[in-house]
Amino acid sequence: MTDFLEVKDLTMRFGGLTAVDSLSFKVAHGTIHGLIGPNGAGKTTTFNMISGFYKPSGGQVLLRGEDISGLQMHEVARRGVVRTFQHSTLFAELTVLENALVGTHMPFRPNIFAAIIGWDREDRSGAEARAREALEFFGLDHLMRERAGDLSHGHQRALGMAVAYASHPDVILLDEPFTGMNPEETRQMMGLMERLKGDGITILIVEHDMQAIMGLCDTITCMSFGKFLAEGGPQEIRNHPAVIEAYLGGARHVA
Amino acid sequence: AGKTIKIGFLAPLTGAVAAWGKPGLDGCQIWAERVNAAGGITLGDGSYSVEFVSYDNEYDPAKARTGATKLIREDGVSFIMMLGGDTWPGVQPVADKTGMLFSTLLPSDLSPDTSTLIAPAEVHPIYNVTGVEWLAENKPELKTAVMCAQDDALGLPSVATYLAAFEAAGIEMLDEPLLFDPATTDFAPVVTRLISKSPDIVCLDTCYSDYVHPIAEQLFQQGFTGQIISCTADFYDQMIAKTSEDFMEGFVFQFPDFDDPALNGGNINFTDPNGFYEEFNRRHPGQWGAVSWEYASIMDLWKAAAEKAGSASPDAVAAAMKEGKGKHAFGDADWWGTELFGIDNALVGDWPVVAIEKGKARIKDFRSIPDWYARHGDLLIKHMKAYDQMWDQRS
Amino acid sequence: MPKFLIWTAALAALVALPHGLSFSQQEILVFLTINVLLVASYRLLTLTGEWSLAHVVIMGVGAYSSALLTKKLGVYVPVSMLLGGVIAALIAVLLSFPLFRMKGFYFLIGSFAAGEIIRLLWKRFRDPFGGAKGIKGIDPMPDFSIGFYKFDFFEPTSYYYFAGVIVAFCLWILWRIEKSPVGLTFHAVHWQDKLAQASGVNVRAYRTLAFAIASGFAGISGALLAHYVGTINPNAFDIDLMVFVLTWAIVGGTATFYGPILGCVVLTVLNEIVLRELGLEQMRPLVYGAIMILSILFLPNGLESIVQKFTQRRAPDGAPERSPAE
Amino acid sequence: MLLEMKNIAVNYGKINAIRNISVAVPEGKIVTIIGGNGAGKTTTLRAMSGMLPVAAGEITFEGKRIDHLPAHKVVANGIAHVPEGRRVFPDMTVEENLRTGAFLRKDKEAVEADLADVFRRFPRLRERRTQMAKTMSGGEQQMLAIGRALMSKPRLLLMDEPSMGLAPVIVEEIARIIEEINANGLSVVLVEQNAELALELADYAYVLETGNAAMEGPADELHGNEHVRAAYLGL
Amino acid sequence: MLDLLAQTGLNAVYAASYISLVAVGLVLIFGVMGVINFAHGELFMAGAYAIVALYAGLNVPFFLAVAAGLLFVGCLGLLMERALFRPLKDNPLGGLVASIGFLMILQALAVMGFGVRMVHIPPVTQEVIAFSDKVRLPVARLYVIIAAIVLLSALWYFLKRTRFGWALRASAQDPEAAALQGISITQTARIAMFIGAGLAGIAGALTAPLVSVNPHMGHSVIVTAFIVIIVGGVGSLEGAIVASVAYALVHTFVTTFWDGVLADIVGLSLMLVVLIVKPTGLFGSADRA
Ligand SMILES: Nc1ncnc2c1ncn2[C@@H]1O[C@H](COP(=O)(O)OP(=O)(O)OP(=O)(O)O)[C@@H](O)[C@H]1O
Ligand SMILES: Nc1ncnc2c1ncn2[C@@H]1O[C@H](COP(=O)(O)OP(=O)(O)OP(=O)(O)O)[C@@H](O)[C@H]1O
Ligand SMILES: [Mg+2]
Ligand SMILES: [Mg+2]
């Protein structure tokens, strides 16, 4: 396993507040990497910097050795780093298939002139095939014509991942994908993520559901007050005193 | 009985420019009632009553084109009166194709391209020279002036004309003309600027009454006590109410009230001006203004020409109109305009100079526009050119 | 096959249409045809979720460009019309730099300000724009004959056929764009620009693209207008007309391609023909305002929702049209 | 019964979100509602607090019919609702958000005391009292939403997934707070995905399945129930 | 020169006063109702016509007529809330169209009732405070300035210091959550519409004797108001006031020292520049557009 995505001295300041404070960690290719920490630790902010939504106040994000910090979100995406959003962020008014088709934007870049004349048949059918494949992968193919906004919560989450998956990403960033799911749904979702991993996709995940985190992650980084706190496998983290103190607590509801 | 002649009225009746159309239509209705009551129009084959057919063009060239088509091809009118301006060029192709006779209130619409467009009511803004000339003769102590106008199709030629008139009269301009946006509502800054140079005369050009009133009020409140000259002073009684009789004393402009005794003279071609004025004010109190009578005065001219020709056909009427001396509202006049408009389709003669005396507008004099032009035409052309207002400069 | 028949019948009806109308109605038909292109192009912009108040000024850019090209450079009219569209699109690209820093209400008013600045420039620079009086005597489309039909472009019917063909072609392109992956991306940019961006869509570029295309077609509609009426001036492209375009689109409904067109046709016919015929001439603004309010209260999804109800009943489980907006 | 909801049905347009649901909340108790996604838990809470009109059935609070009242009047009766998805006022500061919670209260001094109390429970909120709510992290906003509800000094607190997005330590803290305020006499309706937590806290529980009440009973009984364990506890 | 500067300053203060009255009302309505009230300029116009009818027509004492104008236009606001914006509350574009329809109706009613031409209002007072020969402040303008200061301060106090202020701000940001705090959103909508419309009405009423009252007078006012609230940041009252002052200063000084058309171009360009530098206006926040 190689270092694939690396965060180096990443810093984000909002006015007087340093939300992320020279944070460094490495994500190995083909793994599921967890990022945990107390509320307000700076996890979402870190995600926002990696995905290009924020421009870091300092530090670097390296993808395969290339510095991608400060690039715009679509430029980051085009380098293979795709994110999903907290809450179900979808094209609610479009159909499920159309959602997935938007996901194929990168591999099948639309061309307006070809589209008008009708010379893009191949691309269109290629995109559609890819979209269907992604939907099938997440077991959504029977819902293809539904409006995305009408889907159940769980299906919406799956669709969000299908949209990301359709673009052939190398890395997927997931921000709290398990919120609002019951244990059964959580288990299904975990299965989907394992499949993504099986497909060679690297996953970086922020989550407060310890059942999921511990069950899924190869490596877990814990941060607190914007700073690195600990890193290790699930077992290590579960028993790490600083993590217990800052984050896990007595863990009476933690799996 | 039973036979009617239809006359088209193609002007804005709704929207922001409606004030230039609606009162005119009101005046025409009165005109038609009076003419019809007096037996209508007598042509070769008997007498006809007159009916106005209106079309609201919303001051839009495309709608004006549609309206002209409707009036000519569907309603069968014999003559169309327009406000002109923005809307005329849209109608021009229709006029060219159909040969219909049109009139406009804005002579800047005239061009050699269309021989069937006439401007018989007023030759805006050329008559304004008469006011300046009169002022220079009667108050020679006034030496300096400033002016302002809205930056639009009426304001600019007016600015050029007044510049020429002041130059001809030897009155010095203290400042460049101040142009303001037609959407202006607060005139304090404009007035502050105008009087900052302490001029003897403030000239309001062809400001619309919506501007003249607040400007006059501001002049009063900011302490100006000198001479004011303006093209119009509609509702001047209200201006007096807002300022004072003293302040408004001697205000010079160009549009008389039609109850002025001077209009009963034999030179006047408008039928019963006093009666018309009274009737209009009875029906539309507080709405009297220049447009109220101008369309009606055109109808007087048209009626005379049609009766002379014995026919309502546009060609015949046009020919009859142009034969001999023209009968302008304020006296005999000539068809004139080649130098400025490229065609002699504007009716020019004497024009009244009006001044306010003890709270009432009084005609002080009728002055000849052609006489002034014969002496100072070059100045007018110079200034018109500077503002791109010559007919061949208008793209 | 019945689809083919429907289209042929519609085409025949459109060809026959002017012959069933009075002269002034034929004139209105010409302007209506031009406005259909205007409002349909406006819809393309709204696909990305932005509502501009500069669209009519951009139409004016096309009109001014085309008029000046023929007047000053003697460019052949149909060519200058096309160039008018191109120039309008280029201006839109320029405007996109400041404007697309803004969104929503800010974009709405920002675009209004940009449009006003353009209009003030027309007013202020009498050379070459003619100032407040604008440009007149614009060359008409030269007459020509195609054997069995002689085009006399003074006649509304001829111009209607000419403009109709151009507008139909433009609508076809707009339709193709909307139904293409590009169109889908426009929708995506509208509904969730963040997610679109995360999917690799250059949101800014797509907004600009939609703005430029919409503006190009608006420019062509402006050119069509200029060479028919023969005159243009800054006031003809002011906020009043823009408000009409906006209300055509919203009253018609913006969820479908035909919604805004429907709105344009129905409201224009009501305002220019029905109300005038009823002799309500000076009351038209009152009645028109009331109609607008009532239609939006009772048909919040636009006139198109009536059509949708009708067509969806007939085709219950075909691919559904995009669902109602907002 | 403090609150009683009888045979309630709620529709979204043509969709029947809940069909026939009855819930009773005894004075001073914690009642939980659990169920899968889309079962209608949120809808039930929203019906209770008057945010949704009910299509059938009746709701009484302290013996008074409240099902026809608009939300702001329901709340005035002493019900507070921590809505799903936090719904803090984005452009108000933390402190302003909290004070809005006390909008209907006239007892100024007690309000100050309660504010201090909320700050004691959530020190992070005190630290950030002048930060705009929208820039708070997800979990911080959740704390704020709970704090805001407490500020109205309700007699019945409706909580829609209060543990959502919170770190385990904070979840524990929330659980403690719920127990504590309940001990002070406040009744609670708790909607949770975290059924384990919910059943542990609650006295009585309802299980919803697609708009219908599937099961109800004392919380510890349901905790032992096979079906519940399989479907909602992941055991 | 000093005189000229001073007089221009006074002119600017007056302009800032009436612009901010109108703009703040518009901001308030947008903030709470979430609709762009295109008819706001016509509410201003309605306030002016109230003076025409009452003060000029029926000789009601001026300040009584102004109060009546405020009430009348405030009630128009309530009417709009009930008849248009409440049924369309989930449909901001629909609200916009409805307000345009309302605008047309108000204009047409003004034409029917009072004619297309400007109407006249006798002066309220001709008194002028003369600081020097060339620096003069008409008392009628002073009324507008005082009204703006008093009303806007009162509004500021109302919004920042009273429970209703909280209610307005909260329901502007999240109506549902506001309802859960015991805030009646219908009530706040009514209050906002009444105050917002009323401010436009009183601005129209107070300035009526100073401007040309005609059915289309609302147009230029609303254009200015739009510019001002965009520069200030949509939804921000402080922003609207600051931007009104800035706009009035720039516009007045450019008009006086260069010319009026240039003032418009400068005003609009300045607005674009502000938006380019800060796309959400001076006091605006990103999420509220
Ligand atoms: N725009 C901003 N302005 C000011 N402070 C901010 C801003 N965005 C985030 N913060 C602060 O930065 C800190 C980190 O926030 P972030 O959203 O990254 O936390 P998080 O780790 O994702 O927390 P959670 O698990 O609760 O979602 C928080 O304290 C938050 O209040
Ligand atoms: N605004 C709405 N419009 C239409 N349908 C809705 C709406 N809100 C909820 N529904 C539907 O009503 C049903 C019940 O939803 P509800 O939100 O009450 O479920 P829930 O039990 O709270 O689920 P979750 O655990 O996901 O929060 C679902 O089928 C949902 O799709
Ligand atoms: Mg977070
Ligand atoms: Mg829920």
Describe this structure in words.
The complex is a heteropentamer of chains A (255), B (395), C (326), D (235) and E (289). By secondary structure, chain A is α/β, with parallel strands linked by helices. Chain A has ten helices and ten strands. In chain A, the strands form two sheets. Chain A has a six-stranded mixed β-sheet with strand order 6-7-8-3-9-10, sandwiched between helices. In chain A, helix 3 (96-103) packs across helix 5 (121-137) and helix 3 (96-103) runs parallel beside helix 6. Chain A is globular. Chain B is globular, with a radius of gyration of 20 Å. A six-stranded mixed β-sheet of chain B has the order 2-3-1-4-5-6, sandwiched between helices. In chain B, strands 7, 8, 9, 10 and 11 form a five-stranded parallel β-sheet that branches. In chain B, strands 12, 13, 14, 15 and 16 form a five-stranded antiparallel β-sheet that branches. With 395 residues, chain B is an alpha/beta fold. Chain C has 326 residues and is mainly α. Chain C is 72% helix and 1% strand. Chain C has 14 helices and two strands. The relative contact order of chain C is 0.16. Chain D has a six-stranded mixed β-sheet with strand order 6-7-8-3-9-10, sandwiched between helices. A four-stranded antiparallel β-sheet of chain D has the order 2-1-4-5, with helices on one face. Chain D starts with a strand and ends with a helix. Chain D is built from ten helices and ten strands. In chain D, 55% of the residues are buried. Classes of the chains: A alpha/beta (255), B alpha/beta (395), C mainly alpha (326), D alpha/beta (235), E mainly alpha (289). Chains in contact: A-C, A-D, B-C, B-E, C-E, D-E. The site of one magnesium ion has 4 residues of chain D, from helix 1. One adenosine-5'-triphosphate binds next to strand 2 and helix 1 of chain D.
